[in-house]
Amino acid sequence: MNATPIRVLVVEDDPVAADAHALYVARVPGFAVSGVAHSRAEAVRALDRRPVDLLLLDLYLPDGHGLQLVRSLRGAGHTADVIAVTSARDLAVVREGVSLGVVQYVLKPFTFATLRDRLTRYAEFRAAAGEASGQDEVDRALAALRTPEPAALPKGLSAPTLDAVTRTLRTSASGVTAAAAAAEVGISRITARRYLEHLVTTGRAERSPQYGQVGRPELHYRWISLR
C-alpha cells in the first residue's frame, strides 16, 4: 500500500453504525479516518474543510439520498471515490451509482472481514499507476475490485476458505509458506497449499523455493501487488 494513508470520510446517519464503520476503517492498514458525518449537509461541510480520497457512504441519509450527495459533489469538483454501504438491493440504484463513481457496494449487515476485503481491493486498484501494456493489464487492474466468482473455483475449494487464505497472504509483507498459512487459517498444510497454488494459477500470487539449513526447500508464496 501507499506510504500516505488513504483518507476516508464515513457518512452514516446511525451514530452507533458510524462509530463501528470508523473503527473498522481504522483497523485496516493503509487507511485513516478523516472524519464522520451523519447527514448529507455534514458531509458537504466536512469535504469543504478537508478533501478525502474515499467516502464510505450510507445511501439513506436524513436529508437526502446518498447518490444525490455524490451527484452534487461531482458537480462541485470533488473527485473522491465512493464505497456505498447500504441495505438497498435495487439494481437500478447500483447502476446509477456506478455511473457516478461508486466503486464498491457493501450490503448491510456486514462484518469487519467483509469491509476489510473491499478496502484492500480498493487500495490495490488505487495503487495501479502508469500506462497499461495491454488489455490483460487493464483487465487485471479492474479485477482488483471484484470478489472471486465461487462458480469458477476448482472442485473441492470453497470461497470462504479462499478468502481467508487470500487475506493471510495479502497481509504478509514477506509472504507465507503453506504451513504458515495453514496455521493462520486453521486448515491442514495440504489444503492450504491447494488454495495457494490456485492463487498462483490465477495470477494473484507467485511462488519460489525457500532454502533452509537441511532437507528439501519449502515453497514460499507472495501476493502479487498491482503496479
- Overall 3D form: elongated
Using only C-alpha atoms, the radius of gyration works out to 19 Å
Give the strand order of the largest sheet, numbering strands 1, 2, ... along the chain. 2-1-3-6-7
Q: What percent of residues adopt helix (DSSP H or I)?
A: 40-55%
Which secondary-structure class do the elements indicate?
A: alpha/beta
Strand content: 15-25%
Unreliable sequence segments = none
Annotation, overall tally of beta strands: 10
- Give the terminus-to-terminus CA distance: 10 Å
N-to-C SSE series?
A: EHEHEEEHEHEHHHEHHEE
Q: Biggest β-sheet: count, sense, barrel? A: 5 strands, parallel
- Average pLDDT: 83
How many distinct helices?
Answer: 9
Structure keywords:
three-stranded antiparallel β-sheet; 10 strands; 227 residues; alpha/beta; five-stranded parallel β-sheet
Give the arrangement of secondary structure elements:
Elements: E1 6-11, H1 15-26, E2 31-37, H2 40-49, E3 54-58, E4 60-61, E5 64-65, H3 66-75, E6 81-86, H4 91-100, E7 102-107, H5 112-127, H6 135-143, H7 159-170, E8 176-177, H8 178-185, H9 189-201, E9 205-210, E10 218-223
Parallel strand pairs: 1-2, 1-3, 3-6, 6-7
Antiparallel strand pairs: 4-5, 8-10, 9-10
Helix pairs in contact: 3-4, 7-8, 7-9, 8-9
